[in-house]
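Design a sequence for this backbone.
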């Protein structure tokens, strides 16, 4: 028997009793239809109690829980502090306001409570980052190399499943280039666990790697990682939930999923793409620049050799096939930016050819 059903029964009994009293009051003592009217109004009250009770009890509570579940902990804490301070200010002003002549002395104290409570909540929620920074500074959490600087508390970054499995997020966060709290929603963790339990060995290995990355992130003293039960009602797909959650919390999503990247950008959500970051930090070379490259394999075209720079950028060398296995100086002739990354085309220096001979 559900709790909602019990409340329906209680509401039916209470409203039926109230309906009986109402029917008795409306009918009068000397009326011949007194009993009939009492029973009729009582039955109407019972029916209303059976149908309408959840809309005044469980439904508002569920809606409130759902709304609070979508609010970040920092926002909720700042709102409560703002409400308390606003009510304290209103209480201090209520006495002088009550001394005003009627009707102002009776109305203004109540109006002051509403206005100062509203302004307190609005102001503290709007400046929640600054407030969290001040609290972290006062608590001394910055001492001894701790992670909680006010910059970290000022920003929340949502992590996608793909970026956790990728693993590079741990190295990037360790360098300090991700200031903020790395937030992993429970539904992302559930998807990661589902992948780790997959019967496919490759997917299972990827899922377990993601679990190891999360464990590594949580062990780092300079990285703030938080797993939250925050959820989005009415949405089933993990990517859609992340986009909606990012819009509600006004925070970016860290991912390397191309489809999620495009969908989020169309909805105005900020995306931090690790692949774009990796391309951005690669070495910058210009046509005509001389590089020293180890040619390790043949290219697709006849006579080509292929080597790689220290950052992994592919270098295709014309007439480099005969130098496979050697370090040789090449001149950059063209740079091509593709969807997979940057590709450099080069040719062997004439001096290197002469030395080879």
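Sequence:
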């Amino acid at each position: 028997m559900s709790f909602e059903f019990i409340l329906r029964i209680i509401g039916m009994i209470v409203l039926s009793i109230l309906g009986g009293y109402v029917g008795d009051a409306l009918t009068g003592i000397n009326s011949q239809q007194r009993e009939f009217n009492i029973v009729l109004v009582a039955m109407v009250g019972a029916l209303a109690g059976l149908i309408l009770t959840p809309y005044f009890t469980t439904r508002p509570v569920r809606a409130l829980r759902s709304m609070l579940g979508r609010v970040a902990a920092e926002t909720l804490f700042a709102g409560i502090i703002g409400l308390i301070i606003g009510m304290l200010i209103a209480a201090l002003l209520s006495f002088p306001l009550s001394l005003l002549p009627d009707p102002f002395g009776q109305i203004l104290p109540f109006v002051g409570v509403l206005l100062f409570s509203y302004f307190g909540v609005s102001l503290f929620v709007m400046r929640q980052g600054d407030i969290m920074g001040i609290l972290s500074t006062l608590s001394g959490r910055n001492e001894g190399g701790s992670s909680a600087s006010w910059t970290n508390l000022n920003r929340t970054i949502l992590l996608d499943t793909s970026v956790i499995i990728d693993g590079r997020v741990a190295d990037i966060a360790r360098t300090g280039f991700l200031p903020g709290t790395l937030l992993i929603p429970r539904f992302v963790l559930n998807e990661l666990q589902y992948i780790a339990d997959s019967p496919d060995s490759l997917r299972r290995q990827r899922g377990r790697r993601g679990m190891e990355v999360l464990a590594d992130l949580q062990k780092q003293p300079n990285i703030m990682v938080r797993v939250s039960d925050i959820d989005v009602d009415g949405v089933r797909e993990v990517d859609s939930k992340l986009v909606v959650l990012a819009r509600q919390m006004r925070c970016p999503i860290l991912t390397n999923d191309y489809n999620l990247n495009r969908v989020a950008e169309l909805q105005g959500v900020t995306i931090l793409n690790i692949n774009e970051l990796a391309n951005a930090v690669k070495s910058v070379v210009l046509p005509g620049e001389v590089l020293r490259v180890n040619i390790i394999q043949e290219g697709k075209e006849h006579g080509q050799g292929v080597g790689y720079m220290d950052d992994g950028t592919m270098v295709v060398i014309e007439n480099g096939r005969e130098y496979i296995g050697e370090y040789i100086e090449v001149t950059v002739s063209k740079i091509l930016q593709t969807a997979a990354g940057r590709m450099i085309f080069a040719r062997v220096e004439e001096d290197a050819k002469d030395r080879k001979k």
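Strands lie at 156-159, 181-185, 224-228, 253-255, 271-273, 290-298, 305-308, 314-318, 327-338, 341-348.
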